[in-house]
Please model this.
Amino acid sequence: MTQPTPTRSWVASANGHADFPLQNLPLGIFSINGSAPRSGVAIGDAILDLHAALDEFDGEARRAVEATAGGQLNAFFELGRGPRVALRERLLELLAEGSKLQTREAQVLHRAIDCQMHLPARINDYTDFYVGIEHAQNVGKLFRPDNPLLPNYKYVPIGYHGRASTIRPSGTDVRRPKGQTLPAGQTEPTFGPCARLDYELELGIWIGQGNAMGDAIAIGDAAEHIAGFCLLNDWSARDIQAWEYQPLGPFLSKSFITSISPWVVTAEALEPFRKAQPARPEGDPQPLSYLLDKRDQNAGAFDIELEVLLTTASMREQNLPAHRLTLSNTEHMYWTVAQMVAHHSVNGCQLQAGDLFGSGTLSGPQPGQFGSLLEITEGGKKPIELPSGEVRKFLEDGDEIILRGRCIREGFASIGFGECRGTVVAAR
Ligand code: CA
Model:
């Protein structure tokens, strides 16, 4: 007879924790007091040190813990679902109320506040998609009022190859980039600091088991190739972007930094928050068959609430609360994460464990749901006023952007993603 899944932890702060209750158990890489980075699991306000607790695991779960060694989770991602599930099941036992692991608390648990988080994996490749259809329409309208969506959008999960080397964990400062821009009304570009610095609210997707070059990942298998999820801020220099993006898409306007939340939220933790992919509007084409799978259409989308907050240096000095810029949801994805994986590999492109995808900006249709300042201020035409009396068209030095993600469903414990923060600092 199977035991009921435990719901309460002996780690008191986990019970009712906004992000990391017992039901979440995300993995990450941390260090403490300058130690070598190592793997851990977020539980309430604490981190379980997987290496220190290694002798509590055996079989598949132990194989999973051993694969997290070395300060990066790539080998663990490569193991796929079976060992990941075995690890989760053992963690649920070890961290549940009544577990004898509590007697080893001092040895295996650290206060998260004392730890530094690192990138969870070595990221070989990063691809940013554009599946947020409301964002695509809002941005398209700014450039092409009569024809906001190009005809390929509803057939192809659009994306571009991003820069893996400048992905950084939450908390890393965002140096204002310099570059070429074309001032309004001019025909010659100038060079200098970006004047239209923006954020983009995105879901990050960690690739688990990859594929051999030449072999496509079938849509029905695609979910098996996803190791987990994070929040992603695709910082964007809109003035540099406007000048450089044609004909080949974004380049230096996006590659100066991409910030991610450091905890990998697993597919298993997100299981209660899956939902059907929203029906396509009347008149939209059906996905081509290599992108269409019944199970994926029935349960391949997620209900994740996404939030963006802003504080300015002045607001922090005055102890004013962060100002909410965006409240959106992953339900605005026109393509599922499985469709993104299937499409990316359909030509034989090799995906590898630890590759990262961005979803593209996930805006909703209403004001208050827009996932970038480009949309909120209509390209700088409608500045927003902050509680401090300051106004913003785009981000100023000292501004901090905070992304949060939260899953809420009646009858289930809420889980969250932790934060993805970044503060803008002056160009060098
Ligand atoms: Ca983007």
